[in-house]
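User: You have something folded?
Assistant:
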Amino acid sequence: MKTTDHAPLIAIAMLAARADGVVDSAEQTAVDAVVARVGNPDVTSLAQQVAAGQLRVTDLASSLSDDDARRAAYEWALAITNADGSTSESEQAFLEELRSALGLSRAEVADATSTAAALAEAPVSEVHAGKPPAGPLDEFILQQAMLTGALEILPDRLANIVILPLQLRMVYQIGQRHGQKLDLDQVKDLAATLGIGAAAQSLEGVAMKLIGGLAGGLLGGIVGDASRIATGAIITFSTTYALGHVAEQYYAQGRRLSAADLKALFGRFQADAKTIYPRVEEQIHRQVRTLNLQSLLKDLRSPSNL
């Protein structure tokens, strides 16, 4: 993928997030994942142009350099429009416009479309089911953080759809462990309080310390693929780790912590993640080699495995 593809790919991702008129936390997280993977010299300027309606899908699609970039644009748009659940009519219309502009046939995108839809539907219906994790919560949270970090590295461009459902399921299970009866909206509220939908903004400092400044800033500078992948994995690992430990403290204290307390705890556990990630990085990469997205989807949809 050429550096000239970076800006149009991110702009298409931003347009996909706005296709239904509202950019929620799940869609923003998916856009952040694209930014982390692609990198771009001026994301702020792109966001302003998208918000002002200055960028058109047809123009952006025609500027992409090759078939790989065009497939990436469509698959990332799929991931983003499905991030908050099944696609709306307006999102479907956007995807159809994008597919046509990219010169992709319906047959070429059929498998990706069905996979994205299945991934999007699984967490909404199944997150309430299942048993609390057995054994120490510290180990459970670490394992979930490593799993989501591995998903960030997985080559499948639809993998990031699974990350937020796994994080929400983790929070739900931790609440169960402490005797809390939660619904999905309550779990989402906790994630929103911690700014999970703005991972690239809230965790840039952690990522930079972990990779020693190699990337020159998550949202600035064009860096090598390895650096971007490392940054994305670190951000996702840190987010999941901190979210899990904040949830544990929150529910252990009967949900009496204030928003300010929660955010302070989140920052503290981000700092913990900074020291832990180098020790588990090799395990995360080993997990990538055996991770199967379809098997994980089946696991998400099976109440007995939650």
